[in-house]
Structures are given as C-alpha cells and as structure tokens.
Write the structure tokens for this entry.
Amino acid sequence: ENQNDKNLMRSAFKLSLLAGRVGPSLVLAQNMESAGIKDPIANFLLVIQNIKDKNFGAARDMLAMPQDKGMEVFAAPIVAAWTAFGLNDLDGALSWLAQLQDGDVFGALRRLQEGLINDLGGRPEAAESAYQSLIQDPADTPIRVISAIGSFLERQGRVNEAKEIYDDYVSEHPGSNHFEAALNRIEKGQTGQ
C-alpha cells in the first residue's frame, strides 16, 4: 500500500466516525490496524469494542501502548483500569489509575475512579478514603461525586451520613432536585443501589 491509500483510509475512518456511523467506522479501524496504520482514535474504538465484547485481555493489550498526547493521556489509563477490573485484577486496575497524578488536572478524576473500583471490588475502606478525598466543600463538589459517595454510604448502612451529604448539597444548590429521589428513598427506609 502506498501513503495515499493510508491517508485515504484515515480520512474515510474519521469522516465515518464524525457522521456517527460507528459500525462502518469499526470496520475501517480494523482494516487500519491490519494495514499497520497507527491512529489513536481508531485504536480507542477497537479497545471499546473489545470491552463491549468482554474481551478485556485484548483491550488491555491494546492500551499497553504508550500514550503521550491527546485524549489518550487520561482516557487510556481509565479505560485500562476498568479492563483490568473486568479481568478481576483490582490491584492492576489501581496501578493503571496511578498514572493520573494528584498534582495535575486529572487527580480528582483518578480518585473518583479509585473510589468506584474499590467500591465495586469490595474494598469499602479504600473506596471511602478515595471518595472522602474528593469532598472539600459541598458547594464545589461535582454532583457525580456526591452521588457516588452518597450511594456508597447508603449501601454501607450509613444512611444518616448519606442524607447529610445530600442535604448539604441541596442547601448549597437551592432549587436543585437531583437528590430528591435519594432523600425520599432514605425517608422510606430504602437503600440506594
């Protein structure tokens, strides 16, 4: 194949993906991989397809390639962590997340993912530590973090603490009804998922 054919294949892939045609884009990504054409977005699409197919090992292997630019810098470690989790490798999952440093913009994202992985992996103390590190001020804490830790506390039987976190958020965000269902559930004595 000549360079023009590779460029044409790359362009067709990107246009197909931009048009929302995921199926044809996936076929093009597979063809690109077979032709030895390196494209981080095509690679990422193949990784996601492997995860969807529950082929976590293949996804992990594809993510093992060094990522030094673009969205792959933060997306690859997160997706790799969840593929490791899918392979029942909790420690491997957490080591992938360690690539996202605390000092950079991705530290909070890393800690949220650590909380979720530890939570689902049956490590409640580590999950709580990761979650709690994210709550500095309820007014500034993202709603997804409040949801994660509140649900965690409910499932741990610490309903009053969950209610307090939800109430703090609502008091800092008047008019927000995001936690209305959770607060009603708690009032009825039911537990979150």
